[in-house]
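Researcher: Here's a chain I'd like modeled. Treat it as a single chain, no partners, no ligands.
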Amino acid sequence: MNFDSLYQPYPSYRVPVYAKQGMVATSQPLAAQAGLDILKQGGNAIDAAIATAAALTVLEPTSNGIGGDAFALVWTEGKLHGLNASGPAPQSISIEALHAAGYTEMPKLGVVPVTVPGAPAGWAELSRRFGRLTLAQVLEPAIRYAEEGYPLAPGLARHWARAAEVYARQGDADAGRAWFETFTPGGRVPAAGELWRSPGHAATLRRIGESEARDFYEGELAERIHAFLAEHGGYLTRDDLKAFRPEWVDPISVSYRGFDVWEIPPNGQGLIALSALNLLKGFDFAEKETVISYHRQLEAMKLAFADGEKYITEERKMGISVEELLSEAYAAERRKLIVYTAQAPEAGDPRASGTVYLAAADGEGNMVSFIQSNYMGFGSGLVVPDTGISLQNRGHNFSLNPLHANALEPGKRTYHTIIPGFLTRGDVAVGPFGVMGGFMQPQGHVQVVMNTIDYHLNPQAALDSPRWQWMKDKTVLVEQGFPQHIAQALARKGHDIRTELDTSQFGRGQIIWRNPDTGVLCGGTESRTDGSIAAW
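Model: Modeled as a single isolated chain. Structure tokens:
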């Protein structure tokens, strides 16, 4: 398949965007523009990605925040680099301590699931190694929006109101007071088109920029985080913050029809996307809208998730290697389980055989796939008073079963849902892609990759194509625009097909591909949200 075939027309809500000097694609128009402004000021794609990510903590706080985690894939000077900026569990927490406190499973909200926030350290590390401007410079657009305010978009206002209802009903009323003071000024949720500002958020970002994030982990901000959590019985301390360092990792990949699909290694769930593609490459997919095509995708996805749920945790704790899980021999054995009818998935044994995503590129060939999140929208429902730091609840994914691979341990990183993707061909970068949205993410990655490679869709059409999402057992959600005759045929194969009207259930994606001959960038953005591409 030649590169030009990626740009064939396909019915779409939007058309792809082309540019030469630079491009930023993300879920919020003002954030995309913030990244483009940094490119025009002389920054590179890495600077633009950091600026966009920081701006998103202000402009889309329903999905991420300063107190969250981040992952990045960075293509520069002909090589792909991986950054894992996800934080571990506190040293003082344990299964025994939580059992003694009366917990039988990890809670979703409050102080217990708060893990070390990795995003600020991730920004600083990316800036230090690959940035052209200072961290203080690239955080300036985010600081300005926090100080001056911005009008809420309709989709953002809807998710904001939904979160406020959840925290009012289920959150910690005492510890969560600062969340409501920050995000419901005057005692109510901001409406669409209404200005919202956060001076505390601006001051925190300024401290992070001026100190290259050190203040967050060992300065005044660290002391504020420590004091707040200590006051409310939390486990995270100043020592946990001071000890944290983001980790440079070697990305993992599978070869898929002449392309290499890249993900961050565990503790992220990118392995699930690669496992599914490893199964699917054994089949031919000449036509997109056929029952057998969708059936095989669903069955491969279920098998990959079954393995992921059993094995994925921090890589050094897995007890099994990524290479074993992605081996051709194991894929061949698992592929035999994809039969004519829908099956309930079980894990195999290869040894026996609320997130934001952004893509950025510049005219020099640098490209970044970046994702960060607080998890479940705003996260834990907690804000450190007067700082704008909305703390994540990533610890919720830990198991309190000591025999589970992802069992809670002090200092351990949990199974992580957020995953950036990247596509190469040979030693040439094609570009970054991602689909945010909890456990939809590896499923979105598989669908975007297949739409691009198997079905030759341009980036916008690859994103606009109706999506499916496997939920559990044989239950599958499909979008309203999913072909109904195929949905009915899949039901006859034993799939429990349910049409979901809420399109936000199917993730939010961004893509930037680069033509290796001309350097022209082609981008697609999510039509299911307020997605936007800023191009130069």
